[in-house]
Amino acid sequence: MLIDGPAPRAHAPFIAPPEPNGSGEADRDCDLTADTQKRPSLVDRILFIALILLAFGLRPPEGVEPTHTWLPLDLLWVGFYLVAFVGVLSERKAVLKLLRGSLPLIVILCLVGLSMLWSNDPLTTARRAIALLGTSMIALHFANRLGFRGFVESLAIAIAGGAVISIPVIALLPSWGLQHNSLGAYEGAWQGIFVEKNQLGQCMALGIVTIASLSGGTRGVRRVLLAAGLILFVGLLAGSQSAGALASVAVFAVAFPFWLWIRSTGSRSKAALAALAIPVIMFGAWASGGADQAFGAVGRDATLTGRTEVWQSALNAIGERPFFGYGYREFWDSSGDARYFITPNVDGWYADMAHNGFIEVALDLGVVGIIALAVFLVVSFVRAWELFWRGRDRLSAWPLFIMVDIMLQNLSDRSFATQDSLYWIIFLAAFWFATADSQRRRESALQEKKRSTLRGTIAGGPLRAVERAL
């Protein structure tokens, strides 16, 4: 259950109450990574791990286009929608409290629902909007049931399971575990149990961030297992040849230890500058002509395998309907406007998405949607930064770096406000962990202010009586 007042509750909150750290002293405000009082149940862990493995491992058969539905996968998601709906309904008081701090997200979900009013296919848009709502409920349900540490640990186990299963699939079933397509692009790149190589790379990048966040203060067998998992994830990431995932891990490898060091100095100004330095350096390198060399190191070019052609055509389409877009997920349908703006301008390959999460939102919801997304991302980042800054161990950095990783992935892929997306589920879980901590801090500050006022009133009463007597 979510945080419900400053006092610890019997059921597990998102963020645990203050506990001493290993040195016997309390952290700045609380230990953000301590286990909650009630550990997540085995059933909740199994359901969450099963969701990740099945969603990654179930592939549509040959002949089913990416924009079409596939009944077994749809039924899987509908089943988890129902589980999440029942779970959220059973703990509605705590959920409603958390949703009061989720206004930017609610605005996005409302825009998605309203987009059926300007969509060329209102019924399909409405169905997909309901699916996005169900996907968001899954994030809320499992974040609530598993708690902070339980969620991160279960995610690491699920990704490790997918990685371990992928090894024999790659080695023994090359027709399934290696990428093959009619264009011959990246023929033989590893994809394991995943739909394609970029999905494997993105999942391994997610695993690297998660393993690094869990590694603080570990010893013995646990440290060996985490090290083995890290080596496995790095190896599969390299075999996937996913430039976007490699770039996000490269940023993480530089930023993670640097930000931890900045946090240890206690200087907020240095930390803010460190946060801004990475995107500035990346943009400067790109602008100065370093993009070709950077992507050349992983066998790519600065056009990201022709994606810039799609981006340019998509931007032209956005210019035709700039304010509200084409309706949620309608643009890429077989009867959608992509056949006019994208297909004639992309030579040699089939484009079923913009390969950029920000452009996708603009196509769906226009400039209004982009503004709503920008506000949501800023609020998410600020709350995650506060959680990271107040923590003293590595796990408190997980929401911040997960958000950064998924934002970077959305430069060449999509997961923002995407139905049935595990990355959207994970991003929302990180957002709600940070939001729960933000709410707890505000409540603690308010109660402390009330106590101070009360102490002043009590102490000032006798003084006023003496003044009146004199």
Written as H for each helix and E for each strand, in order along the chain, the element string is HHHHHHHHHHHHHHH
Number of helices: 15
The strand count comes to 0
Mean pLDDT: 79
Helix/strand/pairing class, anyone?
mainly alpha
Q: What is the beta-strand fraction?
A: under 5%
| Largest sheet composition | none
- Low-pLDDT residue spans: 1-37, 285-294
Please compute the radius of gyration using only Cα atoms.
24 Å
Number of domains: 1
Binned, the helix content reads: 55-70%
Q: What is the straight-line distance between the termini?
A: 56 Å
| Large-scale geometry | globular
Care to describe what's here?
With 470 residues, this protein is mainly alpha-helical. It has one domain (42-282, 294-449). Helix content is 67%, strand content 0%. It contains 15 helices and no strands. The protein has helices at 42-57, 71-90, 92-99, 103-114, 122-172, 174-177, 197-214, 220-240, 243-265, 268-296, 307-320, 338-341, 357-390, 398-409, 422-469. Helix 1 (42-57) crosses helix 5 and helix 9 packs antiparallel against helix 10. It is globular. 41% of the residues are buried.
Outline the secondary-structure elements.
Layout: H1 42-57, H2 71-90, H3 92-99, H4 103-114, H5 122-172, H6 174-177, H7 197-214, H8 220-240, H9 243-265, H10 268-296, H11 307-320, H12 338-341, H13 357-390, H14 398-409, H15 422-469
